[in-house]
Amino acid sequence: MILARHAEALLWTGRYLERAESTSRCLNYAANSITHLRGDEARAEGELMVRTLGLQEELEAVGPLESQPQLVAFLLSDTDNPGSVVSAVIAVRENLRSVRDRIPIELWEEANGLYLRFPFLGHTNAAPAGLHEVLLMVRRACLAISGILNEGMRRDEGHAFVVVGRMLERSIFTVGLLEASHSDARGTMDATRMLRLTSSLQAYHRQHGNAPDPDGVVRYLLHAPDLPRSVLSCLSRAEEGLTGLGANAAALDRARRKAALLRARLELGEVEEAMASAPVATLQDFAVQLAGLASDVHAGIVPPLAMATVQAQYVRPGDAGQPGDAGEPGHAGEGAS
Amino acid sequence: MVDPLLEPGAGLLDEYDAGGWYDEAFDADGSVRDAYSRIVERFRELDVDEIKRLEKLVADEFRRQGITFTVYSEEEGTERIWPMDLFPRLIAAAEWDELARGLTQRVAALNCFLADLYNGGAAAVADGVVPRWLVMSSQGFERNAMGIAVPHSAHCNVAGIDVVRDADGRYRVLEDNLRSPSGISYVVENRAAMAKACSWLFYDHAVQPTEQYGQMLRSTLESMAPGGGDDPHIVVLTPGIFNSAYFEHAFLARSMGVELVEGRDLVVDGHSVYTRTIEGLVRVDVIYRRIDDDFLDPVAFRPDSNLGVPGLLSALRAGTVTVCNALGNGVVDDKGVYPYVPELIRYYLGAEPIIDNVTTYMMWDPDQRREALGRLDELVAKPVGESGGYGVLIGPHATEQELDQARATIEAEPRDWIVQELVQLSTLPSVADDRLEPRHLDLRPFVLTGERTQVFPGGLTRVAMRRGSLIVNSSQGGGSKDTWVLAPEAP
């Protein structure tokens, strides 16, 4: 049995952990490729990256991309951008902190250690020297955290929520990447880029030779059952996690059925068929379906408990708001005795 | 040329001067007390570089684990690394036994008093042991607690009694904390850090372990379930991750193997308390709360509290859940009640107090007030409702102006103040830059009461960081020491 709040925190841990890793990978790719791209091309690549990560709105708040350092700051250290690496690292730590009593100590220590390695946190937005080292450090820490999750954590509901969160985030990323690649302003789809951004280049080469064609790569990233970042794999694993959770929680069982439905649409070739005529629209529709799945999972965590009636019994309107409404809610309450 | 490896630097304890205070490691003529002989020997073998290395090792360990505490008055960097001094405090077996007996006695009497006040006929008040007006005017007295059944009459399940040693080395109680005493997690983590960084220090010492606290607390709380049910559902209630003691709350839940909940995780329905889980509502039997009374239930207490559970008081009244510590314990944390505790021990237990109070003057008594204010420059004035060292005036360290101001404040509101003789707290060697110097300290042992009472071996030793300072509170820059209760010597 898991508290709804703990379930939510662990779900977000999974999502932000995945986000920290994938944004680091994207940033690394962008930083490397932009060095040999000129003016407009570099800008197009930067914009494509932002689109892949679904951060167009966040970027608008900052203004148009003018330079590589600006892109790096936006994706690495901008704490106002929830999609930046640092925001994700902070979120992983904060979420794990709130479930500190029920996770392996090593898991907390690794997440806390990653956070502590950003000495500039909370002070400036300046990126540290040695971008490559920083990104490598983040990805290694994410892998270490994944290792502890896989090998050090009991396969309880908490573990299942982390997995579901990761798989949701990952499938959303992969679909976002495919959709953005189809809309590349440069007019061509870069097959190698798609494979690199999903850490799948080597696997593809071994299975399909080293001259990737864009359509083949899209199929691969959607359907490959043995590729950890294919949309099909992610949905299968999310469904598996939700199957255990849904046994006693009816609302989560609805989310499981939706995951199964989306998986079936892929497996039965329905998505591929639709993509033949309208690839972008199909991918956009699939992205909407995934977002719907994510909100179903969130809705399923807090089951309808007739809260409205219970609260109405005891709380006068306006008396007690949501936590966080009042300034510094946690700073009061326990005396220093 | 001198080989630095063969020529030891100046010893860390070479110039140690206890400065006329009662030092727990060295007696007045400078010789080492028995219990400390081996530790002192080990520290004599260390040099500055090694001490610095060990200090870094310990600080890194605390930082990595996020063992921090929060200082609210500071503008930024509110999370600070927990400071621990490397020189441990040792308590010999016989000395500890006596102290533990005294603590058990004191907490037993205080529990009797609370049960008498809230569920008895307030006999001690009727018999004039404690004045009625004093109890009634106490900020900590909680009318809502009247008549709420408390299993085993154990109103205080976890007490932290602050004790000090005076100039003669005698233990005295300085303060009672029966609401939400904090610090136990640091006791356990201090030991873990010492064992990692300085395991060699423990050789030849049979030190009582500390890691069993979770088990002790859990069995205490289990015995508090309403109706004495088997395998009760216990939760720890925290204000949340921004609270200064959040680390401790998570530690307690983890070491007991129970859920750490916030107010918003709990809901009251039909006079029972439930946790909100993904599978629906699950009934709760015992809440170990680390939230003050005022914040527990916005319906009964502060309506602006986001931390509590609406309707909790109704569940308490219905007897479906036990809240630990019970409501209303603040009345004995009121320093106005403290001077009466020795009399309460005699009244309820028919025995003389094993540990004395510090000599205290009650400002609401005109004669005592006149005497105390006349020599306030030698005494300590404390507001009755504060804790954590806030608002305390230490006469000998105060200016004439501060003393005058304090006199006026006390004359205006005598109920709000007590004045005590200044206790020159005992000292122990503590790391100060490149050597060990005496630093004053106190001790907070923890007493657990459910079906029976147990004293946890040792407790939190807090130490002032500056020479001569008597302020040991961590919120005001104090540090801590690992506290070793030694097992009895083999015959």
Q: What are its keywords?
A:
heterodimer, A: 337 residues, mainly alpha, 2 domains, 69% helix, globular, disordered C terminus, B: 491 residues, alpha+beta, Rossmann fold, Dna Ligase, domain 1, five-stranded mixed β-sheet, 14 helices, disordered N terminus
What does this structure look like?
- The complex is a heterodimer of chains A (337) and B (491).
- Chain A has helices spanning 4-34, 39-52, 56-62, 68-77, 85-97, 105-116, 131-152, 157-182, 191-197, 201-208, 214-223, 231-246, 250-267, 270-277, 279-301, 307-314.
- With 337 residues, chain A is mostly helical.
- Chain A has two domains: 1-153, no CATH class; 171-301, no CATH class.
- In chain A, helix 2 packs antiparallel against helix 8 and helix 8 (157-182) packs antiparallel against helix 15.
- Chain A is globular, with a radius of gyration of 21 Å.
- With 491 residues, chain B is of the alpha+beta class.
- In chain B, 29% of the residues lie in helices and 22% in strands.
- Mean pLDDT of chain B is 91; it is low at 1-9.
- Classes of the chains: A mainly alpha (337), B alpha+beta (491).
Summarize the structure.
Chain A is mostly helical.
CATH architecture of the domain at 94-159 and 210-348 in chain B: 3-Layer(aba) Sandwich
Sequence stretches where pLDDT stays below 50 over 5 or more residues of chain A:
122-127, 305-337
| Overall pLDDT of chain A | 83
Average pLDDT of chain B works out at: 91
Strand order of the largest sheet of chain B: 3-23-22-19-18
Task: Determine the N-to-C terminus distance of chain A.
Answer: 33 Å
Overall strand count of chain B: 23
Query: What fraction strand of chain A?
Result: under 5%
